[in-house]
Amino acid sequence: xxxxxxxxxxxxxxxxxxxxxxxxxxxxxxxxxxxxxxxxxxxxxxxxxxxxxxxxxxxxxxxxxxxxxxxxxxxxxxxxxxxxxxxxxxxxxxxxxxxxxxxxxxxxxxxxxxxxxxxxxxxxxxxxxxxxxxxxxxxxxxxxxxxxxxxxxxxxxxxxxxxxxxxxxxxxxxxxxxxxxxxxxxxxxxxxxxxxxxxxxxxxxxxxxxxxxxxxxxxxxxxxxxxxxxxxxxxxxxxxxxxxxxxxxxxxxxxxxxxxxxxxxxxxxxxxxxxxxxxxxxxxxxxxxxxxxxxxxxxxxxxxxxxxxxxxxxxxxxxxxxxxxxxxxxxxxxxxxxxxxxxxxxxxxxxxxxxxxxxxxxxx
Length: 364
Ligand SMILES: Cc1cc2nc3c(=O)[nH]c(=O)nc-3n(C[C@H](O)[C@H](O)[C@H](O)COP(=O)(O)OP(=O)(O)OC[C@H]3O[C@@H](n4cnc5c(N)ncnc54)[C@H](O)[C@@H]3O)c2cc1C
Prior knowledge:
With 364 residues, the protein is of the alpha+beta class. The protein contains twelve helices and eleven strands.
């Protein structure tokens, strides 16, 4: 039935390795998988790079065992795809950031390993062109598109500065590019499928240049560039970071309008990258060359507020995959639907009346 029972303390990497030993994959994949634990990825409903095809942690969990705040153990390690028997406490604990109980084990969905896989990095004219390319790729390969990441020219600049030993695929970093991964059934060569996609995209004026990995090592090198972007960002030091999501139809206009708003607000650099296929952007602001983070102290909060307002006005979320924690409690209060917030408080009060579970997180 392709289900794995994992203890909460197993790392995501251990879970992925155990699945591979059984000839399957556990398709949740994050840069932090060597240290992130199953309990942590479920409690944060972590996303990562394969959400486009396989969903986030919630979509990959069938059942949970947890210690509730009263001390009782909830044993619900079901392996069922269908179970309509009332309130879904599993879904309540997933993404609760440890505020409703401690997850101790979970039953997890395993997926077949695609027979053929391939990776390409293509330069595109704009975020809008990147989204058209995604539609084209999905029209040609259906659910075979497993990852679709947007990378800005600023990302390549930062990588060049802090990781100069990493080989970059473009002689001149393009303003925008995408990293595409496909996983296809036997009989469909991934390299050929990506070449066909590139040719069709060139004809439509969507992609102008690019590389298709010719080996597993080249594919890993392209992914490594993507995975080093957060590390390069940290080395530069952000003024403010935003983990936002938008309906796909709003992504391109948001980027354009936010860039214009920031250009009027002051001199700074924007690194916009992320899981474009999921509408999830990391929209991070950095000091202009020669300036320091501190120079922006007086406008930092107002800029973040403005960006989040623009996101919410477009039907988006101010926290796509990084959760609420303690930092975004105020944002949730400001933008959360009042009825939903009241229900959340009632649930917290009912399950954890003494407020002993991760106090201060999510609801403050
Ligand atoms: C380099 C890097 C890349 C990352 N990439 C992504 C990404 O692509 N997508 C993404 O979603 N996140 C990403 N993250 C964030 C983070 O790694 C994930 O959210 C991960 O799931 C956290 O797991 P952890 O075990 O480290 O949890 P912790 O950080 O220890 O805890 C996270 C939260 O879960 C709660 N918690 C932990 N264990 C349990 C448990 N057993 N029961 C109940 N509550 C518990 C904690 O109280 C806390 O609120 C990234 C982090 C890093 C450093």
